[in-house]
Amino acid sequence: MTAHLNIPPFGLGTFRLKGQTAIDSVATGLSLGYRAIDTAQIYGNEAEVGQAIAQSGVARESIFLTTKIWTDNYAEDKLVASLKDSLVKLRTDHADLVLIHWPSPGGTVPVAEFMDALADARRQGLAKQIGVSNFNIALMREAIAAVGADAIATNQVELHPYLQNRKVAAFAASQGIPITSYMTLAYRAVLKDPAIERIAAERAATPAQVTLAWAMQLGHAVIPSSTQRANLASNLLAQELRLDDSEMARIAALERNGRLVDPEGLAPAWD
């Protein structure tokens, strides 16, 4: 039984960033004050993230580093070894948070097996915290049965104004498990939403700041990515924006089950 350490409410995502682009985004983010970085084995950029951190001059202990285990590595005899490979690329002896990236395709590796292996990685000091990503309620129940709710630091899921994932978020909250929102800006689609644009204009804020502030006010962590220094700097300011109840309600009304990430063979039966 391990109480949650705090997950930073605001971090930098690196999905789809490759090569020098990934290095530059992380380096810029760290220079601007980002202190949480999110990557994954399947992103193919762990080495670049590690390089950017190593060259940043920011102390490793000041950075909250997340990576995710890919489905090929879920078996009990593979998971820890694959994480050790990731840590070599990341130039560190531990990750602050290690997640199971997607459910095992077709349930090939049982939830209990990979959660036990992940818990073992934590016992070995390779991960300070562990969690899951893209899990529905049924899979979260299985993960909780395997390691206990208080061992699961987060469930990282697609969550934005067009897909508010309320059932999963409510179940996670009932178990004391925080949600991390990815794709919070819905591939930038919500930035052109009239309701969000109006709130942004009223607040002299950007639509991105409004959307990120909305997710954080719901209690979710966010990990937006950008390759542009101006956007990276601007997004950080979302942490200082507080929306009122009417503004939160206007964004709540945008729900349309607008799922963007639903890979065949990986995605579970969504709630």
Account of the protein in words:
The structure is a single chain. By secondary structure, the chain is an alpha/beta fold. The protein has a domain of 174 residues: NADP-dependent oxidoreductase domain (TIM Barrel, Alpha-Beta Barrel). Helix content is 39%, strand content 14%. The chain contains ten helices and eight strands. It has an eight-stranded parallel β-sheet. Helix 4 crosses helix 5. It is globular and about 55 Å long.
Shape: globular
Main pleated sheet = 8 strands, parallel
Quaternary form: single chain
Would you count the extended β strands for me? 8
List the helices and strands and how they pair.
Elements: E1 12-13, H1 19-32, E2 36-38, H2 46-56, E3 64-69, H3 79-90, E4 95-100, H4 111-123, E5 127-133, H5 137-147, E6 152-158, H6 166-174, E7 179-182, H7 194-203, H8 207-217, E8 221-222, H9 229-236, H10 245-252
Helix pairs in contact: 1-2, 2-3, 4-5, 7-8
Descriptive key words:
271 residues; alpha/beta; TIM Barrel; eight-stranded parallel sheet; 39% helix
